[in-house]
Amino acid sequence: MDKGLRAFLAVARGGSITAAASTIHLAQSSVTKRIAALEAELGIPLFRRDRRGMSLTEAGERFFARAERIEREYHNGLEEIAVISSAGLSELKVGAGPVFHLNWVAGLFADLLRRFPDLKLDLKTEHRESMGRLLSSGSLDVYLGILTEDEIDSSIVTRHVTRIEHGIVLREDDPISRTDTINPADLTGYQWVSFTIDPVTEQRIEQYTLPKGSKKSLIDIRTTSLATGVQLVKSGRFVMSAPLQLARVVKKEGLVIRPVLHRIQPRDAGVHVRKSSLEYGAIKTVMSYFDHVQIQN
Prior knowledge:
Shape: globular
Oligomer: single chain
Strand order of the largest sheet: 4-3-5-12-6
Radius of gyration: 22 Å
CATH superfamily of the largest domain: Periplasmic binding protein-like II
Strand content: 15-25%
CATH topology of the largest domain: D-Maltodextrin-Binding Protein, domain 2
CATH class of the largest domain: Alpha Beta
Number of strands: 12
Largest sheet: 5 strands, mixed
Distance between the termini: 42 Å
Helix content: 40-55%
């Protein structure tokens, strides 16, 4: 891919020359020269520069969208050529939401290594950047979980696996846990932990649990660590939102998870891969694994 585009994308995502240089393993002076050359070629500034770093101008924002598309096409082309030449994958980069990595990733990885003993596996369970964007750009090969509509473009193929619904985790000895469903109105006085990195799910939780018209956030603590959330709930002062599909994991910790009264609308989750990688043996194995694994909806 063009060196100027690569430097531009790194600065746009990192917010500074320093961060970009670290990401693409270049000297800061080299990144600065590439950005200057690109701006000179286009005849317009792409970045605002201040003490806090660098941010995109209006022209930069428009160019960024095009540059990301070029990056995706470049990586897709590399993958298609690799398939034709039988080069294959030496490393499979997998991103996974909590339901997938706590329930099925261990079995999936065991299956992959039985078939491809030399394959290296890299798992990401959280990231500050959009998982959909990481998948499109080639930083991930597979994402297992929920992607929003604006994270999925025409380069991505999705196979539905399950529907994820959030419930409420409480201590097993809590009297409220004895009911089949939890009325959030009964939880006055508790503090809330949100176990999710998905803002849409969190909005739905608050929609179902906050008094109508309230603008105050219900969530006291946000975490992507189930272990942290579990320890907080065990203290007796907290309840936690988490997917109902984690009931088995929650039960092992001596806790229970119950649906919310009137239920929170489930969301589709599945396997997301790039079209250009569908012929890889490792990707076919991932797809096949979820065709046969026992999924509890």
